[in-house]
Design goal:
Structural class: mainly alpha
Number of strands: 0
Helix content: 55-70%
Radius of gyration: 21 Å
Length: about 290
């Protein structure tokens, strides 16, 4: 359970909330880069490793990271100018199309920017603009990026899950959210909980029911919110995942054999636990008697 000092922290001022929302729009633009490029960076690294081990020429020798090259239209290669990169405004001004080739710009981009702005404002309004409030921004940004990446690729990059886990432990050195011992136990139990489910399912069916990234994400959530919040997070993510999965099968004609990423549901449950932890824990305890 989150400590009293945090639960009853003074909410952020209107000015701080609005500033956080505007800042979030800018961060959302960067998160779009992370979401698009990080899986490609992982694939390029894997390709180069395989080529190196087999003694072949490296297939990717150019610089490709979160900073370079500059963002460009994937259809025609048009370099995105500063004026074309203003969050939300540029998408509306361009009519949702590339200024050069008129290819449609995915709706994902303004949605991520808008969601990041709204989440930033909500977190600062809820937790204030002090140390704890600023920490929740990093927590939320990481979860947003992982949600989109896992949805697209069924991958949860170590470059996001591990920093989130260590950040949770560091933030709780002085008990910002939970006492440090609860954070450490939460990280260990979070990993072992899904690790155990994974192996039980694999031994019973011979199939893999989830990826290792899910274990690491739940470990990170445990490091931020403590072990007592894990049952609530698991229950929430499982219920939402089951409802969405059944809906996709029935209404979107998604095949049962096609994997459904679990990371987005863990991320959503973790954010809900951060915002409404005590209330959700009370409901969870009543359910489990």
């Amino acid at each position: 359970m989150l400590p009293e000092t945090l639960l009853f922290a003074a909410p952020g001022s209107l000015g701080a909330t609005l500033a956080a929302g505007l800042f979030g729009l800018l961060i959302g633009s960067f998160l779009n880069v992370v979401i698009y490029r990080m899986p490609k960076m992982m694939q390029r690294e894997s390709d180069n490793y395989v080529a190196h081990e087999s003694g072949r020429e490296l297939p990717h020798q150019d610089n490709f990271n979160l900073m370079v090259p500059r963002s460009a239209c994937p259809h025609c290669g048009h370099r995105i100018t500063a004026l074309e990169n203003i969050p939300l405004v540029s998408y509306v001004a361009l009519g949702g199309k590339c200024s050069a080739c008129k290819a449609p710009i995915p709706l994902r981009y303004p949605l991520v920017e808008g969601a990041t702005g709204l989440l930033s404002a909500l977190l600062i309004w809820r937790f204030g603009s002090g140390w704890a409030g600023l920490a929740t921004l990093g927590f939320g940004y990481a979860l947003l990026a992982m949600t989109a990446i896992d949805y697209d690729t069924q991958l949860l990059p170590d470059d996001l899950t591990f920093p989130l886990l260590w950040a949770g432990l560091l933030v709780n050195l002085n008990g910002a959210f939970v006492p440090l011992h609860e954070a450490v136990i939460g990280a260990a139990c979070g990993y072992l909980a899904l690790w155990s489910v994974y192996w039980l399912f694999k031994l019973a069916t011979g199939k893999e029911g989830m990826g290792y990234g899910d274990f690491k994400l739940l470990a990170a959530l445990g490091a931020w919110l403590g072990w007592t919040m894990l049952p609530t997070i698991i229950l929430l993510s499982s219920l939402v995942g089951a409802v969405v999965g059944i809906g996709l099968i029935l209404f979107a004609k998604r095949g049962r054999e096609k994997p459904i990423p679990f990371g987005p549901y863990l991320a959503a449950a973790g954010m809900l636990a951060l915002l409404y932890g005590p209330e959700l824990s009370g409901i969870s305890r009543r359910i489990f008697g």
